[in-house]
């Protein structure tokens, strides 16, 4: 082997090693930035107040007069809510998602079917939900209820869902 080919092999090996180190460094930097962004959003979610629910109560009179809900305004302005519903906007489009945010849905019966329906309506961004069920959560209903846990046994199904819904999306107005 000539001296020139040995130098070429050594240079190629050194270049490969340097690019591997650089790639690994950039990868770890990227992961660190993503982790910091997630932590920042996590803190923002936990610091998010429930003031929007109080503001929604003022819109009841606006709705009866034909006004629009503040949930549409919040949908555009609230960064957390906007990101939470970003897949819906990509699928439906912004105008249809606004209609969903303006909608008022009543769910009667919060058992095996109704609890799942209400849960999906909540996550789709419905602005107002009325939950109606006069039954209580029982041990035998836990296997089919969307969100009930053993801790919820003995409580009203409507109160159970309301408690869990406020943790999932505090912006929705639950009636």
Name its key features.
175 residues; mainly alpha; Rossmann fold; 2 domains; three-stranded parallel β-sheet; 3 strands; 7% strand
Distance between the termini: 84 Å
Q: Write the CATH fold name of the largest domain.
A: Rossmann fold
Write down the Rg.
26 Å
CATH superfamily of the largest domain: NAD(P)-binding Rossmann-like Domain
How does the overall form come out from the CA principal axes?
elongated
Average per-residue pLDDT, rounded, comes to 79
CATH class of the largest domain: Alpha Beta
Strand content: 5-15%
Domain tally:
2
Strands of the biggest beta sheet: in what spatial order? 1-2-3
**Global structural class:** mainly alpha
Protein name: THIF-type NAD/FAD binding fold domain-containing protein
Pfam family, one: ThiF
GO molecular function: tRNA threonylcarbamoyladenosine dehydratase; ubiquitin-like modifier activating enzyme activity
């Amino acid at each position: 082997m000539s001296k020139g080919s040995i130098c070429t092999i050594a240079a190629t090996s050194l270049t490969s090693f340097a690019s591997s180190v650089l790639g690994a460094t950039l990868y770890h930097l990227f992961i660190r930035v993503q982790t910091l962004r997630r932590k920042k959003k996590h803190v923002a979610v936990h610091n998010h107040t429930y003031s929007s629910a109080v503001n929604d109560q003022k819109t009841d009179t606006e709705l009866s007069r034909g006004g629009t809900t503040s949930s549409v305004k919040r949908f555009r302005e609230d960064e957390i809510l906007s990101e939470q519903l970003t897949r819906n906007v990509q699928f439906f489009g912004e105008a249809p998602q606004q209609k969903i945010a303006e909608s008022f849905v009543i769910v009667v019966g919060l058992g095996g079917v109704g609890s799942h329906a209400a849960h999906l309506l909540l996550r789709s961004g419905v602005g107002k939900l009325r939950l109606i069920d006069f039954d209580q959560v029982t041990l035998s209903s836990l296997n089919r209820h969307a969100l009930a846990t053993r801790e919820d046994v003995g409580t009203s199904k409507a109160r159970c869902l309301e408690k869990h819904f406020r943790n999932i999306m505090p912006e929705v107005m639950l009636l």
